[in-house]
Amino acid sequence: MGPNPDMETKLKSNRAANMLRKAQEGAYGIPAVCVYNIEGILATVRAASAKNSPAMLLLFPWAQTYSGSILAHSAAHAARTALVPMTVHLDHAQSPEAVKEAADMGWTFDSIMVDMSHYAHEENLRLTKELTEYCHDRGIVVEAESGRIEGGEDGVSDTADLEGLMTTPGQAKEFADTGIDWLAPAFGNVHGSYGPRGIQLEYDRLKDIQNAIGKEVQLVLHGTDAFDRDTYKKCIDYGITKCNINRVVNQRLKNVWKEGTLGLTGCIEEGTKRMQEEIELLMDWLGSTGKA
Fold first, then answer.
1. 91 catalytic per annotation
2. What would the pLDDT profile of 247-281 be if each residue is shown by its tens digit?
3. Interhelix angle for 96-103 vs 121-136, to 10°?
């Protein structure tokens, strides 16, 4: 079967795909902020507007099980009405059902991570190819994970207790050949805390992966807890265009709750403000400030 012209047209106009292509051309990173609530959505939109930066709102499938479509639709509305380029991404969708449910939500998600990394390699490839076609038919770009990034995140369960597996250039090429748009490689990065060993990234591996897949498939960074400006910059220098951000932002809100000195509305407003401040700093570090 030849290419589907209608599908190709939809993908070319996909806002998230275009956002990452511009980041690749401009050598900066897109801040992709994991949001769990309205505070996170507002903080990201306000930071992006203040810094004139593109940004992504990331939701986990937890958002669907917790709120139905409410959080997803709120994020989509915020992204569509923002004064700067913003998109909505479903991260770590770990079952075919979760992927298809999100893809069938119409205008809600611009991109979906098809995370089948808890399956054996061949099954991961098969499911990724099948689900990529499903998403592409609906104009949604696809991210996948080759190897397995160690650790877990709040809101993601199926890979938290599994051993991390480094991505090889050969495996990366196999995933690129499934038709995916973005690849999240495992090159020493860890979901959650890096613990006593600290951050030990294999940049040579990352470079070999980029050489294996070419520039048509964008590289995505997971596991950025405790990264500093120099670490982000080096990852971007080696081809990363989308940087997932979680704990460093959401912890700011948790700290306000823990302090317990404000009323409910005060906690909401102060927490949103502190999250916005952190996101603005990260936009400067990623080089996305002024790139909207």
1. yes
2. 999 999 999 999 999 999 999 999 999 999 999 99
3. 10
